[in-house]
Amino acid sequence: MIKGVLAVLAASVAYGIMPVFSKTAMAQGMNAESVVFFRFLFSSAFALLFLIKRSNRRYVTRRQLWHLLVFGILGFGMTINLLTFSYQYIPTGLATMFHFAYPLVILAVMAVLYHEKITRYKVAAVAVALAGVALLADFSQGLALPGVLLALGSAVTYAAFVIAGRKSSFAILPPMEVIFFVSAFSTLIFGAKSLLLGQLQAPPNGTAFVCLIIISVVCTIFALAMLTYGIRTLGASTASVLNMLEPVVSVVAGVLAFAEPLNIRTMAGCAAIIAASILIVLGERSAQRADLKQ
Protein backbone atom coordinates (compact mmCIF):
# COMPACT_ATOMS: atom_id res chain seq x y z
CA MET A 1 0.00 0.00 0.00
CA ILE A 2 2.73 2.44 0.96
CA LYS A 3 4.18 2.38 -2.55
CA GLY A 4 0.81 3.32 -4.01
CA VAL A 5 0.40 6.18 -1.53
CA LEU A 6 3.88 7.52 -2.28
CA ALA A 7 3.22 7.24 -6.03
CA VAL A 8 0.04 9.33 -5.82
CA LEU A 9 1.75 11.89 -3.57
CA ALA A 10 4.58 12.15 -6.12
CA ALA A 11 1.99 12.66 -8.87
CA SER A 12 0.33 15.40 -6.81
CA VAL A 13 3.65 17.21 -6.43
CA ALA A 14 4.41 16.89 -10.15
CA TYR A 15 0.96 18.15 -11.16
CA GLY A 16 1.04 20.86 -8.50
CA ILE A 17 4.22 22.53 -9.76
CA MET A 18 2.97 22.66 -13.36
CA PRO A 19 1.31 26.11 -13.04
CA VAL A 20 4.71 27.62 -12.15
CA PHE A 21 6.28 26.45 -15.40
CA SER A 22 3.14 27.13 -17.45
CA LYS A 23 2.98 30.72 -16.17
CA THR A 24 6.69 31.16 -16.83
CA ALA A 25 6.33 29.91 -20.42
CA MET A 26 3.36 32.23 -21.01
CA ALA A 27 5.30 35.12 -19.47
CA GLN A 28 7.84 34.57 -22.27
CA GLY A 29 5.11 35.26 -24.84
CA MET A 30 3.46 31.87 -25.42
CA ASN A 31 -0.33 31.48 -25.32
CA ALA A 32 -2.10 28.78 -23.32
CA GLU A 33 -3.12 26.75 -26.40
CA SER A 34 0.50 26.45 -27.55
CA VAL A 35 1.72 25.46 -24.09
CA VAL A 36 -0.85 22.65 -23.98
CA PHE A 37 0.01 21.50 -27.52
CA PHE A 38 3.77 21.33 -26.91
CA ARG A 39 3.18 19.68 -23.56
CA PHE A 40 1.54 16.72 -25.27
CA LEU A 41 3.82 16.79 -28.33
CA PHE A 42 6.97 16.50 -26.22
CA SER A 43 5.33 13.99 -23.87
CA SER A 44 4.40 11.67 -26.73
CA ALA A 45 7.89 12.04 -28.24
CA PHE A 46 9.69 11.19 -24.98
CA ALA A 47 7.31 8.30 -24.29
CA LEU A 48 7.92 6.94 -27.80
CA LEU A 49 11.70 7.08 -27.31
CA PHE A 50 11.30 5.13 -24.07
CA LEU A 51 9.15 2.49 -25.76
CA ILE A 52 11.57 2.12 -28.69
CA LYS A 53 14.47 1.46 -26.32
CA ARG A 54 12.47 -1.05 -24.28
CA SER A 55 12.63 -4.61 -25.58
CA ASN A 56 9.50 -6.03 -23.88
CA ARG A 57 6.86 -3.89 -25.56
CA ARG A 58 3.33 -5.29 -25.53
CA TYR A 59 1.00 -5.54 -28.48
CA VAL A 60 -1.92 -3.15 -28.18
CA THR A 61 -5.22 -4.70 -29.26
CA ARG A 62 -7.87 -2.87 -31.29
CA ARG A 63 -10.13 -2.73 -28.23
CA GLN A 64 -7.38 -1.22 -26.11
CA LEU A 65 -6.52 1.27 -28.85
CA TRP A 66 -10.16 2.32 -29.10
CA HIS A 67 -10.42 2.79 -25.33
CA LEU A 68 -7.18 4.77 -25.31
CA LEU A 69 -8.54 6.99 -28.10
CA VAL A 70 -11.86 7.59 -26.33
CA PHE A 71 -10.53 8.14 -22.82
CA GLY A 72 -7.39 9.91 -24.02
CA ILE A 73 -9.37 12.53 -25.93
CA LEU A 74 -12.71 12.65 -24.08
CA GLY A 75 -11.13 11.98 -20.69
CA PHE A 76 -7.68 13.45 -20.21
CA GLY A 77 -7.59 15.82 -23.20
CA MET A 78 -11.12 17.11 -22.71
CA THR A 79 -10.42 17.75 -19.03
CA ILE A 80 -7.68 20.22 -19.88
CA ASN A 81 -9.80 21.77 -22.61
CA LEU A 82 -12.80 22.32 -20.32
CA LEU A 83 -10.65 23.73 -17.54
CA THR A 84 -8.92 26.13 -19.94
CA PHE A 85 -12.28 27.42 -21.17
CA SER A 86 -13.60 27.76 -17.60
CA TYR A 87 -10.74 30.18 -16.80
CA GLN A 88 -12.36 32.66 -19.20
CA TYR A 89 -15.40 32.92 -16.92
CA ILE A 90 -14.24 32.28 -13.35
CA PRO A 91 -10.92 32.57 -11.45
CA THR A 92 -8.55 29.62 -11.61
CA GLY A 93 -9.00 28.97 -7.87
CA LEU A 94 -12.76 28.57 -8.30
CA ALA A 95 -12.29 26.41 -11.38
CA THR A 96 -9.91 24.19 -9.39
CA MET A 97 -12.46 23.88 -6.59
CA PHE A 98 -15.21 22.67 -8.92
CA HIS A 99 -12.78 20.42 -10.82
CA PHE A 100 -11.83 18.68 -7.59
CA ALA A 101 -15.37 17.44 -7.25
CA TYR A 102 -14.10 14.52 -9.35
CA PRO A 103 -13.41 12.26 -6.33
CA LEU A 104 -17.12 12.49 -5.50
CA VAL A 105 -17.97 11.41 -9.04
CA ILE A 106 -15.54 8.50 -8.76
CA LEU A 107 -16.93 7.41 -5.39
CA ALA A 108 -20.47 7.43 -6.80
CA VAL A 109 -19.59 5.56 -10.00
CA MET A 110 -17.47 2.95 -8.20
CA ALA A 111 -20.23 2.35 -5.66
CA VAL A 112 -23.12 2.17 -8.16
CA LEU A 113 -21.51 0.44 -11.15
CA TYR A 114 -18.75 -1.60 -9.51
CA HIS A 115 -20.28 -2.12 -6.03
CA GLU A 116 -17.16 -0.83 -4.30
CA LYS A 117 -17.55 -0.43 -0.54
CA ILE A 118 -17.47 3.23 0.45
CA THR A 119 -15.94 3.47 3.92
CA ARG A 120 -16.55 6.23 6.44
CA TYR A 121 -12.90 7.20 6.06
CA LYS A 122 -13.37 7.91 2.35
CA VAL A 123 -16.55 9.91 2.90
CA ALA A 124 -14.93 11.94 5.68
CA ALA A 125 -11.74 12.48 3.66
CA VAL A 126 -13.64 13.76 0.62
CA ALA A 127 -15.76 16.10 2.76
CA VAL A 128 -12.72 17.53 4.56
CA ALA A 129 -10.73 17.86 1.34
CA LEU A 130 -13.56 19.65 -0.48
CA ALA A 131 -13.87 22.04 2.46
CA GLY A 132 -10.15 22.69 2.18
CA VAL A 133 -10.33 23.37 -1.55
CA ALA A 134 -13.26 25.73 -0.93
CA LEU A 135 -11.11 27.67 1.54
CA LEU A 136 -8.42 28.01 -1.14
CA ALA A 137 -10.93 29.39 -3.66
CA ASP A 138 -11.67 33.11 -4.12
CA PHE A 139 -15.40 33.83 -4.35
CA SER A 140 -14.99 37.61 -4.44
CA GLN A 141 -15.40 37.80 -8.24
CA GLY A 142 -18.71 35.92 -8.23
CA LEU A 143 -19.90 32.76 -9.95
CA ALA A 144 -20.48 32.74 -13.71
CA LEU A 145 -22.67 29.76 -14.63
CA PRO A 146 -20.80 28.86 -17.87
CA GLY A 147 -17.50 28.71 -15.97
CA VAL A 148 -19.01 26.59 -13.20
CA LEU A 149 -20.53 24.14 -15.69
CA LEU A 150 -17.27 23.86 -17.64
CA ALA A 151 -15.24 23.21 -14.49
CA LEU A 152 -17.76 20.64 -13.25
CA GLY A 153 -17.63 19.06 -16.70
CA SER A 154 -13.87 18.69 -16.29
CA ALA A 155 -14.52 16.84 -13.02
CA VAL A 156 -16.73 14.34 -14.86
CA THR A 157 -14.27 13.79 -17.75
CA TYR A 158 -11.30 13.40 -15.41
CA ALA A 159 -13.25 10.96 -13.24
CA ALA A 160 -13.94 8.91 -16.38
CA PHE A 161 -10.23 8.88 -17.23
CA VAL A 162 -9.21 7.82 -13.71
CA ILE A 163 -11.80 5.03 -13.57
CA ALA A 164 -10.73 3.86 -17.03
CA GLY A 165 -7.17 3.59 -15.74
CA ARG A 166 -8.46 0.95 -13.34
CA LYS A 167 -11.34 -0.73 -15.17
CA SER A 168 -10.91 -0.41 -18.95
CA SER A 169 -9.15 -2.80 -21.30
CA PHE A 170 -5.94 -0.73 -21.30
CA ALA A 171 -5.64 -1.00 -17.50
CA ILE A 172 -3.27 -3.97 -17.99
CA LEU A 173 -0.91 -2.07 -20.30
CA PRO A 174 2.37 -0.66 -18.97
CA PRO A 175 1.90 2.99 -17.89
CA MET A 176 4.32 4.32 -20.52
CA GLU A 177 2.28 2.85 -23.35
CA VAL A 178 -0.85 4.45 -21.94
CA ILE A 179 0.98 7.78 -21.65
CA PHE A 180 2.20 7.59 -25.24
CA PHE A 181 -1.20 6.98 -26.79
CA VAL A 182 -3.03 9.45 -24.55
CA SER A 183 -0.42 12.14 -25.29
CA ALA A 184 -0.32 11.36 -29.02
CA PHE A 185 -4.10 11.58 -29.41
CA SER A 186 -4.20 14.79 -27.36
CA THR A 187 -1.40 16.24 -29.52
CA LEU A 188 -3.47 15.70 -32.67
CA ILE A 189 -6.59 17.28 -31.15
CA PHE A 190 -4.90 20.32 -29.61
CA GLY A 191 -2.62 20.77 -32.61
CA ALA A 192 -5.60 20.83 -34.99
CA LYS A 193 -7.44 23.24 -32.68
CA SER A 194 -4.47 25.62 -32.44
CA LEU A 195 -3.91 25.59 -36.21
CA LEU A 196 -7.60 26.23 -36.95
CA LEU A 197 -7.63 29.15 -34.53
CA GLY A 198 -4.29 30.44 -35.84
CA GLN A 199 -2.82 30.43 -32.34
CA LEU A 200 0.04 27.94 -32.61
CA GLN A 201 3.31 29.50 -31.43
CA ALA A 202 6.79 28.02 -31.27
CA PRO A 203 8.79 28.48 -28.04
CA PRO A 204 10.25 32.00 -28.35
CA ASN A 205 13.40 31.38 -26.30
CA GLY A 206 15.37 28.88 -24.23
CA THR A 207 13.49 29.64 -21.02
CA ALA A 208 10.14 28.77 -22.58
CA PHE A 209 11.61 25.64 -24.18
CA VAL A 210 13.04 24.39 -20.86
CA CYS A 211 9.70 25.05 -19.15
CA LEU A 212 7.91 23.00 -21.82
CA ILE A 213 10.37 20.12 -21.36
CA ILE A 214 9.80 20.13 -17.59
CA ILE A 215 6.01 20.28 -18.08
CA SER A 216 6.22 17.34 -20.49
CA VAL A 217 8.66 15.08 -18.65
CA VAL A 218 7.93 15.83 -14.99
CA CYS A 219 4.37 17.19 -14.96
CA THR A 220 2.96 14.82 -17.58
CA ILE A 221 4.99 11.63 -18.11
CA PHE A 222 6.22 11.22 -14.54
CA ALA A 223 2.94 12.45 -13.02
CA LEU A 224 0.76 10.19 -15.17
CA ALA A 225 3.04 7.19 -14.56
CA MET A 226 2.87 7.69 -10.79
CA LEU A 227 -0.88 8.31 -10.79
CA THR A 228 -1.51 5.25 -12.97
CA TYR A 229 0.52 3.09 -10.60
CA GLY A 230 -1.34 4.55 -7.63
CA ILE A 231 -4.74 3.91 -9.22
CA ARG A 232 -3.86 0.31 -9.98
CA THR A 233 -2.47 -0.23 -6.48
CA LEU A 234 -4.96 1.64 -4.30
CA GLY A 235 -8.05 1.83 -6.49
CA ALA A 236 -9.56 4.78 -8.30
CA SER A 237 -11.47 6.32 -5.38
CA THR A 238 -8.60 6.21 -2.86
CA ALA A 239 -6.07 7.52 -5.38
CA SER A 240 -8.38 10.35 -6.41
CA VAL A 241 -8.75 11.59 -2.81
CA LEU A 242 -4.99 11.48 -2.22
CA ASN A 243 -4.46 13.36 -5.48
CA MET A 244 -6.35 16.31 -3.95
CA LEU A 245 -3.02 17.36 -2.44
CA GLU A 246 -2.29 18.89 -5.84
CA PRO A 247 -3.80 22.33 -5.05
CA VAL A 248 -1.78 22.47 -1.81
CA VAL A 249 1.42 21.95 -3.79
CA SER A 250 0.28 24.62 -6.27
CA VAL A 251 -0.25 27.11 -3.44
CA VAL A 252 3.19 26.41 -1.94
CA ALA A 253 4.84 26.56 -5.37
CA GLY A 254 3.14 29.89 -6.11
CA VAL A 255 4.34 31.34 -2.81
CA LEU A 256 7.92 30.19 -3.41
CA ALA A 257 8.15 31.05 -7.12
CA PHE A 258 6.02 34.18 -7.42
CA ALA A 259 5.76 35.41 -3.81
CA GLU A 260 1.98 34.98 -3.98
CA PRO A 261 0.14 36.03 -0.79
CA LEU A 262 -0.46 33.45 1.93
CA ASN A 263 -3.18 34.15 4.51
CA ILE A 264 -4.87 32.30 7.36
CA ARG A 265 -7.71 31.07 5.14
CA THR A 266 -5.27 29.60 2.60
CA MET A 267 -3.25 27.88 5.32
CA ALA A 268 -6.44 26.46 6.84
CA GLY A 269 -7.45 25.10 3.43
CA CYS A 270 -4.06 23.45 2.97
CA ALA A 271 -4.26 21.95 6.46
CA ALA A 272 -7.72 20.52 5.74
CA ILE A 273 -6.54 18.83 2.55
CA ILE A 274 -3.50 17.38 4.32
CA ALA A 275 -5.82 16.10 7.07
CA ALA A 276 -8.00 14.46 4.40
CA SER A 277 -4.94 12.69 2.98
CA ILE A 278 -4.06 11.39 6.44
CA LEU A 279 -7.65 10.16 6.86
CA ILE A 280 -7.58 8.21 3.61
CA VAL A 281 -4.25 6.58 4.50
CA LEU A 282 -5.57 5.62 7.95
CA GLY A 283 -8.66 4.20 6.27
CA GLU A 284 -6.56 2.03 3.94
CA ARG A 285 -4.47 0.74 6.85
CA SER A 286 -7.64 -0.05 8.81
CA ALA A 287 -9.06 -1.93 5.84
CA GLN A 288 -5.85 -3.93 5.44
CA ARG A 289 -5.85 -4.92 9.12
CA ALA A 290 -9.50 -5.99 8.83
CA ASP A 291 -8.66 -8.15 5.81
CA LEU A 292 -5.79 -9.82 7.67
CA LYS A 293 -8.07 -10.73 10.58
CA GLN A 294 -10.57 -12.46 8.29
Question: Can you walk through the features of this model?
Answer:
The chain is mainly α. The protein has one domain (2-293). Helix content is 80%, strand content 0%. It has 13 helices and no strands. The chain has helices at residues 2-16, 18-27, 32-53, 62-86, 92-99, 102-113, 120-136, 145-167, 175-197, 206-234, 236-242, 246-258, 264-293. The relative contact order is 0.21. The model has no long low-confidence stretch (mean pLDDT 87).
List key phrases describing it:
mainly alpha; 80% helix
Task: Give a topology summary.
Blueprint (H helix, E strand, L loop, with lengths): L1 H15 L1 H10 L4 H22 L8 H25 L5 H8 L2 H12 L6 H17 L8 H23 L7 H23 L8 H29 L1 H7 L3 H13 L5 H30 L1
Helix pairs in contact: 1-10, 1-12, 2-10, 3-9, 3-10, 4-8, 4-9, 5-7, 5-8, 6-8, 6-11, 7-13, 10-11
- DSSP summary: helix tally: 13
Domain count, please report it: 1
Task: Characterize the overall form.
Answer: globular
Q: Tell me the major beta sheet.
A: none
Quick structural summary:
The chain has helices at residues 2-16, 18-27, 32-53, 62-86, 92-99, 102-113, 120-136, 145-167, 175-197, 206-234, 236-242, 246-258, 264-293.
